[in-house]
Fold:
Amino acid sequence: MPLQQRTKPINERSASVATVKFLNASRNLEAPSSARYRIDDVTKNRRRSVLGWTTIATPSSSEDITVTAEQNRILDDCNKRERRKITVEATSLAGLQYRQTFTYEIKNEPATD
Structure:
């Protein structure tokens, strides 16, 4: 269940999209029987919930997870960057459970008037 990787930091208060593809044991795309995700702030090794567990109502083999601008806001202005972690859990049609995480950075932008 790979998540599309992002290498550049996201500017604060910018929406972003993470794409997850669900694969079966043969590495072919396959919709899981269930899937859910959450977003956490993991800056400085803490875990602060940004979005609690959210169920994907009817998961397909590829899902776009939209992270809103509000979810990508800087929580502590003293930080030059903050880290967010998206965790996705899924159960395959065969009943196997999977968990995948993806971490990305948000860049603190100076205030402008």
